[in-house]
Automatic annotation (TrEMBL):
<protein>
    <submittedName>
        <fullName>Phosphoglycerate mutase</fullName>
    </submittedName>
</protein>
<dbReference type="Pfam" id="PF00300">
    <property type="entry name" value="His_Phos_1"/>
</dbReference>
<dbReference type="InterPro" id="IPR029033">
    <property type="entry name" value="His_PPase_superfam"/>
</dbReference>
<dbReference type="InterPro" id="IPR013078">
    <property type="entry name" value="His_Pase_superF_clade-1"/>
</dbReference>
<dbReference type="GO" id="GO:0016791">
    <property type="term" value="F:phosphatase activity"/>
</dbReference>
<dbReference type="InterPro" id="IPR050275">
    <property type="entry name" value="PGM_Phosphatase"/>
</dbReference>
<dbReference type="GO" id="GO:0005737">
    <property type="term" value="C:cytoplasm"/>
</dbReference>
Amino acid sequence: MPKQTKTITFIRHGQSLANAGGITMDHHAIPLTELGVNQAKHLADSLAFEPSAFFVSELIRTHQTATPFCDKYSIQPTVHPLLNELSCIDPQLIQGMDGKQRRPIADAYWQEADPHKRLGENADTFAEFAQRVDYFLLELDTLPDRSVLFGHGIWFGMLVWKVLGFSTNTSQDMKAFRRFQLGFPMPNCAVYCLESSNLGFWNVRAKAL
């Protein structure tokens, strides 16, 4: 019997206010910029395939990116908390800061590279984030073929890191992941395909528009 291929499409959200260097907001509430809204509309017009389901994280920017697709195909998205990105700094600790002011704090976090460090009550540790992606990978085979995931760049970088078989347990692992993630091509509204013909084994490829 021939093996049945499953394809899952990942789409990073459009440009957000944080991407544009805006003032700190609650992670969940950061909206798309006008450019980000237009990016999502253009992408929905450009991609020609029939999706079976849409999944979004709990963060509003993925919902806004999914909206043109939902309208086009009359499919409501399912919120999937395991798609949430790494929130490594509690917004209360950086309240009122813009992107330039936040950068040294984020750089210091990655330079220290403590997988269990928590920068504030409402922040993730790197270890928790990596485990969240592990849990999602366990569910990936159960998603319907032709599902579309609207998510976050660092999240997908971690997914690919895991698919490649790299670990995230030590400080050196964390630093290695950061180097990989910074070099991974992931502009706003980037599109990648995950393809599998065997349970638990996935190939990743960029989708040209």
